Write the structure tokens for this entry.
Amino acid sequence: MKKWLLTAAAAALTLSFGAHAYAQNIQPRLIRFGYGLNEDSNQGRAARFFAEEVAKRSGGKLKVRTFGAATLGPDPQMQNALIGGAQEMMVGSTATLVGTVKEFAIWDVPFMFANEKEADAVLDGPVGQKLLDKLQEKGLVGLVYWENGFRNLTNSRHKIEKAEDLQGVKLRVMQNPVFIDTFKAAGANAVPLAFAELFTALETKAVDGQENPYTTIVSSKFYEVQKYLTVTNHVYSPWIMTASKVWWDKLSPDEQKILIDAAVASRDFERADTRAEAAKALDQLKADGMDVTVMPPEEVAKLREKAAPVTKTVIDSVGQPLWDEVQAEIRKTRGT
Ligand code: TF8
């Protein structure tokens, strides 16, 4: 009789809280989740997916409120808010984390990954995890990597077909030494600037150009203020989902597990969505009036050569062992 009652009570609880939330230690919480791109972007879609997953897995107790278009500030500012505990979560570029954990510079090395498969394997493998773990002592919890994607050049000045055409072009780059040095080495006038200020800077011609994946050129409407697009695929950029460590440490193991599982699900969703969109984006940009040039391989090789000293600087900074580890992981995926 007693046993039957307990089972009934358990069933009732399961019904009222949802199967996942039953018997778990979950408190009602509001999680402010910031990101930099528009709501109508791959970043925005995946942020909403994450919010829905967390709601589902916590029986609605954990509420993720998403803030797009840098309304909580550009990436570096949000990172500081997370460290100080004024904001709970965000997704943004790894490039702006290099000042916090210098090893992240390794993901900015030009021409390091040849395709998305290599990037996935390395980022989701032991080295990717090692870098996520390094964030803890700086007050951040690194959860997963999303795909920003392979970067390409746009500008409003002239067609860039050869490496030397970059000479003197005023190019916005991310606030990151590897990007600044890479484009300086290529002869451009590299100007670091927050992403949130980029559209206006392009529109007012404060800068001539910028570099980002196709998906961002579409979602941020850069085609409205940039005529020329050059396909260079000069570097693969990851995004990273992080949480405030002071906040995270107050969560129960059940709550942390829900967030980790939802983060992993959002990663898989985001990569699939980004790749599907990227496959259509180039045609869309042509239809929007962009003049598209594919930089010939011999010219890309020149860019690569000019960037070699920058790669050397990154290796000196992150240390040869880490570099070797990443290269070994890449070779593993290449089967060589
Ligand atoms: C950039 C990055 C952006 C990110 C994003 C706002 O050019 O590619 O995608 O900073 O988080 O700044």
